[in-house]
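Incident review: delayed structure delivery

Summary: a single-chain prediction request sat in the queue longer than the usual turnaround. Root cause was a stuck worker, restarted by the on-call engineer. No data loss occurred. The affected request and its eventual output are reproduced below so the record is complete for anyone auditing the incident later.

Affected input:
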Amino acid sequence: MRNAAKPSLVVALPLAFAGGALGTSLRVAAHWLGDALHVGPWISTLCVNVVASFIAGFLGRLLLGHLTRQQALAVEVVDPYEAQAHRNAMLLITGFCGGLSTFSALGLELHDLIRSQHVLESTIAAALSVVIGLLAAWSGLWLGMRLNRHR
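Output delivered after worker restart:
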């Protein structure tokens, strides 16, 4: 059984696709800007991942933070606000933030740094990605909770 508020696959796929296209486009633009500013590729990746982490935390808590885990998993008729919140989450969190962020590029960039004998820079980049990414997500969650009128 599925949660009645969550969009069906027929609705979820186009939403995730549209959000992902926009997020991916912004990621490409960020990498282009990083190249134009002559910064390392991992710095552009760090920036888009931190922004995506903040947005995902913020929107996740803002859109769906009023639900308890039990309510989110319940199979029952839901109000229109909750159904719309799930569609917005699919578009913005799964699609946009998923397209904007890129763990796979980070892994390749760290590998390239190690192969070119920049082990310290690779270690710093990995540590910054994890620490700043978590801080951004937690900050987004905190702000979203503060602004969520339904908690």
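Verification: The longest helix spans residues 119-147.
Action items: add queue-age alerting; document worker restart procedure.
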